[in-house]
Amino acid sequence: MVRVFVRTPVPDTPASFLATYHRLSVLVNVGFALNLATTPLMAYVAEPYPWGIPLQNTFADVPYDALDAAAAPMFQGLYNNMTMAPLEWFKLDLATLSYAVRYTLVIPPADEFGSHPLRQVNALVSFPGALVANTPTCDVRLMDVAAAGFYGVGGRALVYDFLAANSSARASNRWCTCQFAVLLGIPIAVGCLWFYSTSSSADTLPSTSITAFFSVQLFETFSMCWFKLAYRVALSLYVVWLLWSRYYRHIVALHRSLNRLGLDCTSSCTRYKIMLGDPSGLIMSEFVVAVVVLLDIWMNVSYLSIAFIQVSQVTDVWQLILGCMYTVWGGALFVCILTVFTKRYKWEAIFTPVDPTVLTIASYIYGGPVLAVFVATPAMVVVYMLRHISLPGKNPVVDMEVSA
Predict the structure, then answer these.
(1) 133: part of which helix (H) or strand (E)?
(2) pTM for this predicted structure
(3) Nearest-5° angle of CA 232, CA 234, CA 237?
(4) Where do the domains of the chain lie?
């Protein structure tokens, strides 16, 4: 009996695949990842660590009518023309947990405000902030008054009284007022506004040259500082977990798959380079991360005020960059919320997809300028009025509610 056997064809030798990572892309990717993982801790660029909190006089027991006499000497000793460099407009002192803004201004005589209604607009354009108000003596629009968005009733009245005063009164009187900044009724900072005339007797111009200071000391407690540190470390660990679960885990799987199977059975390619990209879009589009970061910023609204001042100017680029870092997450949260509504109401067809990396870069670029619009233009009036319709302080003249 003859048996016939079907011989199995000898398979070809399987191809050997090799996948490696592009070294430069890995280096850039690690930089992006470290930036994302440490973003919650970047707040300590402007904040002291819990173990570096100085002992502070919060002036909590000082009567309202004695606040000026108690707080002003401390600020005026820390920040003056001797302790600040000639071109220095902003100074942050972590040793005392305070900062100051200084501006030199040229203001026309008081009698010219009535005869030239637009004179004050041109003369006061060098102050930071914006505020519109009517006084019995003149209709004054203060463009860019030193940190005007943070003035209480007392600070605003001081500016108006100074503008209405004659040259001798401007030079001789003591122009200073202090106030508490409160968050939901809890004092979180104390600040003072003061200015003095710098015009000499040799000056021939009738206008008054003044130097204006606005200084704030932030109140911190050891327990709150340690809580914020734990909060931020936990958020950083969550970001690291997101990076692994949403990005690197899939990169590792891709690397293994390429080494075993290659990219295409019909392709003759056996060597592959994996180029890593920017994972920022994956993290910043995460709703939980955006909400938690903004909650952190809201809990530290006193430091947000520093960012407001930093983005209101363009002369100090480094301070402008630091201010923009606080604003990028507002744009990220807006994108997250818009994405939810887009998917909920099926609006995808009316939107054009945007690369997440481009969107992240755009958030960094436009965040600061948009915030500056609400600080250095009349649009600040909206923000200013919101603060005055929020919870009133114990003394509206001295307390400034910042919860809005």
Answers:
(1) strand 130-134
(2) 0.71
(3) 110
(4) 18-47+224-401, 54-220
